[in-house]
User: Fold this.
Amino acid sequence: MKNKNLTSIVATACMLLSAAPSFAQNPVIQTSFTPDPAPYVHNDTVYLFVDHDEDDAQYFSMKDWQLYSSTDMVNWTYRGTPMSTATFRWAKQGDNAWASQAIERNGKWYWYICAEDTTAHLHGIGVGVADRPEGPYTDPLNRPLVPGNWGYIDPSVFVDDDGQAYLFWGNNGLWYARLNDDMISLGSEVMEVKGLNDEKAFGPKKLKMDYKLGKKVMKTNFEEGPWVFKRNGLYYLVYAAGGVPEHMAYSTSKSINGPWKYEGKIMGESPKSFTIHGGSIEFKGRNFMFYHNGLLPNGQGFRRSTAVEEFEFTKDGKIPFIPFTNDGVKHPAGTLNPYVRIEAETMADSYGLKTDRMAGNDHVITSVHNGDWLRVRNVDFGKGKPSKVKAIVRNVKQCGSIEFFIDHLSKNPIASVRVTDVHQSECEAVVNKDISGVHDVYMLFRGDDGELFDMDCWQMKE
Assistant:
């Protein structure tokens, strides 16, 4: 019966993969729900700071924040869960770990978050500080940087060309303040962005619910989720707009203090999500817009996932309308070397797998069952023939195998790494095919019913 079940699972997986485009990419993280993406480029790496919707969420029930990274824009490595509401003694514990953004300055990492301020009983802005992007993070203030108030959510940090740092935030209101050089104290009073109800500045007003008044009123097109950056001397403010459901729009200004000019809609209403939140980066000379949707299995408006689209600014510096795609990033911005250790939690696509929920640098793939799989894109084997493949597993609950395939799942794996003992950690297998050039690598997990083992890493041997 188990063999029949296994055959069915493998056949189904092969059918699904062969029917899907080989470059399908969105959402980019499949092991967790990852809303409110905040990408940040540091040297040759994109760090992706995200919130974390619970798997069974029926509201914005979020306990912690997660980190991923990529050097090629298609394979994303889980870097842990470095912060939670427990990091901040002033925050309501176990809930309301909402949108955030991080930045590096002078060798320190500053992660600005919003959580419920237990004194004000409203969301406020806090900051965690670390020596490395993956932490450990501490709260240097033991209090909110910006105490809780109506609409005080969704912080966005920006450092201008002259070195002056700013923090923007807001929902149905938009506020900002200068940051001191220490990045953990305000260098000005809290200022409200002017012209928020001016249609020339932020677009046509909308009929929205005002929760203070308890009724619907005509309010600003700006909703929440500001994202601030500068390009060729012009300031850009990207934001969720239009009420619920939200779309993404932007305004520009010649000064960080305004006045702002409405430039239009740049993304529509996100699939299966009544919110949209994200921001753009330039990486290796290319431009990418991040956002979230509800398209993962079991996804919806309270279980959202990061997605990415590539775009080009127009000649006059405008952001074009960016359609949603399943393809995402078609052309990787780099390759992976299979002859060095590759963390198992580095992947472009996966099914059925989870990652641990730990801080630190040491992470694994968990919840590995028969028929689960993962894909790594753009792996460069060079001119040599790999002779063996090694895998390291942990917490073996029952024996099984990891089958390696090139470019697609088929009947004939190039290697089958077998886990034959519950005390086993390192295992390897002979590669039975000459492989050169750039390929996708698939790993299919096989075994009996129930959880098999955790996977730590893999590596080819020449």
